[in-house]
Amino acid sequence: MTVTAQAPAPEDTRVSLTFAKALNTALADEMAADSAVVMFGEDVGPLGGVFRITDGLTARFGEERCFDTPLAESGIMGMAVGMAMNGIRPVVEMQFDAFAYPAFEQVVSHVAKMSNRTRGKVRLPLVIRIPYAGGIGGVEHHCDSSESYYAHTPGLTVLAPATVADAYTMLREAIRFPDPVVFLEPKKLYWTKEVVDLAALRAPFEAHSTASDPAIGKAAVAREGTDATLIAYGPSVSTALSAAEAAAAEGRSLEVIDVRSIVPFDDETVCASVRKTGRAVVISEAPGFASVASEIVARIQERCFHSLAAPVLRVTGFDIPYPAPKLEHFFLPGVDRILDAVDELQWEDK
Question: N or C: where does the chain have the smaller number of CB atoms within 10 Å of the terminal CB?
Fold first, then answer.
């Protein structure tokens, strides 16, 4: 009797990762793949960062490649500019969103303009990691939504992942990107957990110079729907998905678009969804005046006007300084506020 050997069962490469661990893994994988990648900032060395995103990197790669700096954000950014001009790929961490403001002059005057200033002869391949937005009960200076400042500055790519898989993939893409990237990490998502196929996420970076289907400049359909489109990014995506789930229980089908890449912005995916549903609500934690949400609304109105059954609405933070922790839940967009906005989309005309 002939016995045919059975092929071994495929290895299950799915793992349960937190958002924070996905970022940590992306950093470690890029530092292992490219000796030019260095990580530095306040308390990112032996401590592993306030949120432990850099945990273990100093022990693995040494103090020359993951190290602490003085508490001087402008100095951190200036050093990153000099390194990037000389063949190094720096990744810097601003310890909290509002701590980054002392470095803002460097970002606007040098980081964003160096390529244009030199007619493309000097590129700055650096990543500015910023733990940002609310949802953790932080006090002033420890919670803020600063994306509009960066999005309004030509020369910067601005990313805001909302899932564990995107946290890994988009950070690796950002590090390999030839120009400066502001990488916004929603603090309230650090401890969320998903099961992902880590080997599949790694494979494109091992085979090519970047991901085969890059997220930079590309939004994602997070949930299919037919009645209206919810458009969100970063920390607001999970809230939008919760609102869509609640709306489904009431018989209303809401599509959810995860913007992912604030700059460059994916008009094609967003507008395709709005043209399909005819109604849209844009959701963001930042104050609404002169915001990223305002820009998204304007782009939809300009491109989808004849497909709209109702004006595009926004659900955002209020135009006030970031509130005290006990008042945070009033400030942040929630499911009820989103559903109230959906109810205002002139359904009587349908």
Answer: N
How many residues does this entry show for the chain?
Answer: 350
Closest CA to 217 of 158, 276, 164: 158
Distance CA 286, CA 330 (A): 13
Neighbouring CB atoms inside 10 A of 16's CB total: 10
* Catalytic, out of 141, 142, 152, 329: 142
Q: Which two tokens stand for residue 314?
A: 């926004």
**Cα distance between residue 79 and residue 113, in whole Å:** 16
Please say if 329 is a catalytic residue. Answer: no
Question: How many C-alpha atoms does 168 have within 13 Å on its Cβ side?
Answer: 25
Whole-number pLDDT of residue 7: 58
What DSSP line would sit under 48-89, residue for residue? --TTSTTTTHHHHH-TTTEEE--S-HHHHHHHHHHHHTTT-E
**Which residue in 220, 236, 230, 72 sits closest to 147, CA to CA?**
236
Side-chain half-sphere exposure of 79, counting CA atoms within 13 A: 17
Prediction pTM value: 0.94
The whole-angstrom separation of Cα 198 and Cα 217 is: 23
